[in-house]
Write a structure and sequence with these properties.
By secondary structure, this protein is mostly helical. The chain has a domain at about 25-60. It is about 50% helix and about 0% strand. α1 (about 25-40) packs antiparallel against α2 (about 45-60).
């Protein structure tokens, strides 16, 4: 069996998925990414800011 060419098969539940991070768990990493965004003028700051924004969009609404 060649795992690189075998199709992915399976069934997936229709149940809602749980968030990987709770809001309280995500606050500090998002805060640190925002700090990095401000402190890294070489382009990495913009990437950190984008990652922080992506994480915030994935968090459940309060």
């Amino acid at each position: 069996m060649d795992h690189d060419t075998d199709p992915v098969t399976g069934t997936y539940s229709d149940e809602p998925r749980l968030a990987l991070l709770a809001v309280t768990e995500a606050r500090k990493p998002v805060e640190l990414l925002r700090v990095l965004e401000r402190l890294a003028p070489d382009g990495h700051g913009q990437a950190a800011g984008q990652l922080a924004a992506d994480l915030v969009r994935r968090l459940p609404s309060p």
